[in-house]
Every structure is written in C-alpha cells, then in structure tokens.
C-alpha cells in the first residue's frame, strides 16, 4: 500500500516537472515572445555549466558523503561553497550565452526564452528524472528485486534510497512545486544578466551571482540539517519566486 501511495506523489512530481515547462513553451509561442534559439542556448548552458563543469568541480571538492568538503567537516564551508559554486557557474554560463552566443538575440523575449530553457531543462533533469528513478526503485521494492541491487551499493547510499522511498507523498509534490519556483527564479536571473550584457555593465552579472548564491543558501542549510523544517524552506522559496515574477513583469519596461 505504501508503494502505491508513494507512486501517486512521484507521479505528481513528474507531471509538474514536465507539464509546466511545456505549458510555458506553448504560452510563449502564443504570445509571440518565444525564441527557440535563446531557449536552446539556455538549455545548453545549463547542461554544460551546471551538469558538467560544476559537477566536475564538485567531484574534486566535495567529500563522497555529499554533505561536507574534503579536508574539513565545517558545515558552513560546505554551504558557502555550494551556494557560491551554483551562483558562479550558472550566472557566468548565462553571461557567456548572452555575450557570445546570442549577439543578435537580446530582446525581452530572448531573456524569457533563455530562462525558460535553463529552468525547464533543470525541471526535467532534476524533478522529472528523479521522479522516474524513484518510480523504478518503488517497483523494484514491490517485486522484491531491490535487495539484490542494494547488496552492490554502499550502505550509506542504500539508507538514503530507503529514506527517499519512505518519505510521504506530499514531499514529492513539494518537489514538483519547487521546480515551478525555480523556473521563475531562473527567468528573473536571466533577464538580470541580459540587462547587464545589453548595457555593457558586468556588475549586473555579479548581482545575479550573489542573488543566486543567497537563494541557494536556504536549501543548502536544509541539506546539512541546520534547517529542519521543509515548510520553512519552501515558504522562503515561494516568496522568492513571487518576487521573481514581479521582477520579470517590471523588467519588460527596461527592454523597450
């Protein structure tokens, strides 16, 4: 019964992670602001800078436990590194995208499209793929195959997977909703970087790096259990997403 209930939560997370980016693409095409080139570059930049380059640095710096840096057990060093790494890699990626790959695509719609590509592929890779993986694990548990696979994995990883499988359905739903928050934030930061590129003012890129790092401090603190209330984390992210939406609307005036 527990597996069936969990599958519902995973399905909701998968649905939100896939349908929201798709719905925004349709909305962008209907409104006439969607740029496929900017969307594609945003997608590419996320994969290259966040999933390849940043992950390579993580491999060198982060302890295999995943919650501390090599050479130090300081929680605050881990949080600071994680937040700054995400800010630097993703915002510098946006800068490279707009500065060198989108020289003729720097309108307000291009900024929206870039952010949608960036945040949309993140939703698919983090929210969608994660949900699919958990569905597969849930199936393995129900068919009695999980223990065979678990025997070849480190004990800490097995415990982490069991904890994830046993979490309530609303946690998965929150994961899907969080992807929506993230898309709004990515679009806002993309517009901020684009505004800096258009005006030849790199300080706006620095603002984006600092803002991104500040935002990522909250989930990082939850990851290391300094903050234990998930509702507090999601409430803060919701407020930031609302502020991002307001920022997105107001930035349209800056591009005319």
What labels describe this entry?
256 residues, mainly alpha
What can you tell me about this protein's structure?
The structure is a single chain. The chain has one domain (2-255). The radius of gyration is 19 Å and the shape is globular. It has helices at 2-31, 36-61, 75-101, 108-142, 146-150, 155-165, 169-198, 203-223, 230-251. It is 81% helix and 0% strand. The model has no long low-confidence stretch (mean pLDDT 92). It contains 9 helices and no strands. With 256 residues, the chain is mostly helical.
How can the largest sheet be summarized?
none
Number of strands: 0
The total number of structural domains is 1
Return the string of H and E elements. Answer: HHHHHHHHH
- Percent of residues in beta strands: under 5%
Number of helices: 9
Dominant shape: globular
What is shown here, in short?
This protein is mostly helical.
What is the secondary structure topology, with strand pairs?
Layout (H helix, E strand, L loop, with lengths): L1 H30 L4 H26 L13 H27 L6 H35 L3 H5 L4 H11 L3 H30 L4 H21 L6 H22 L5
Helix pairs in contact: 1-4, 1-7, 2-3, 2-4, 3-7, 3-8, 4-7, 7-8, 7-9, 8-9
